[in-house]
Amino acid sequence: MKPIPVASADVTGNEEKYVSEAIRSSWISSSGKYLDQFEAEFAELCDSKYALSCSNGTVALHLALLGLGLRPGDEVIVPSMTYIATANAVRYCGAEPVFVDIDPETWCIAPDAIEAAISPRTRGIIAVHLLGHPADMDSINQIAAMNGLWVVEDAAEAHFALYKNKPVGSLGTVGTFSFFGNKILTCGEGGALTLNDSQLSIRLKMLRGQGMDPRRRYYFPITGYNFRLTNLACAMLCAQLERREEIFAKRNAIFDYYTECLTGIRGIGFQPCAPWAQIAPWMYSVTVDPHEFGQTRDDLIATMKEADIDSRPFFYPLHRLPPYVKSASKQGQPLEVTNQLGATGLMLPTYNQLSFEDIDRIVSVIRRAASSSTPIRRAA
Q: If you compute the radius of gyration of the chain from its CA atoms, what whole number of angstroms results?
């Protein structure tokens, strides 16, 4: 049987054509038709005034924090259940991430945990739209406003997800996105920021482009960075945006079929969806209750691997990783929901070319694993 990867890029539209056109035009670096076109289209789709492309999603976070003036000694409240780039970007600025728990109803940062973590050094909040589900932005923005904080939306996994019918990326001070190879929209490596503040947009462009004054070529009033994306990468993204409805339709069908097939298997839990949310279909994710299923999540991953099916565990809770465990231990929050999800969460193969027959094969392995295992009695 053919191996089933956990993700695979779909570049079957005009990607090659547009990249070839960019090459023939000789505009292959950080200027060109496709760069301008992508930024304009992406801003409109995110209901934002401005979109700035950049070299990857981690850079998008770093650039946002630099533009917002984050400095050494500051603190930023971050969910512990996220990819490590969210916290690393804070450290790049010399600041410290303060880890908080997630809401079991959304798997996103818990607003009540944010309030408990605010200190005199807190400057902002990073609201991660985990696994494509929007965070509770009204509550988060209210807390931020009451405490004079900014809010960065980490929407790396949540392209065009909706919060109360509004697209993510338009809901905080700045939104950040990733276009890595496993994302819903991809150019291999790439990122973007979305925002509505004209002055902040100017500052971010300067920081992105080595700090050059937009009115005086080769005059650099600030220390900047080379965080730019290429016209070639944006050519790919323009082709991806053309097919966004097709891409989302395929992935939503995959999500629906997974749910239909997995329903009823003991010990398998599903990603929650708040009534006000429309999830971006990034990676289909479940939980594996070892007591009900009879195996741990990691046992199931190994079983699937033997069947040539790739999968991924959820992210390790950041407060337990070596770069952060010492500082997190001083913060004192138990983060029980994060720890539980980190131990049981499983990402299943999700990509546009995944067929229903492939899903049948994946589910049959999961079903056999459950039926061949005996439920484990919980400790009293």
A: 21
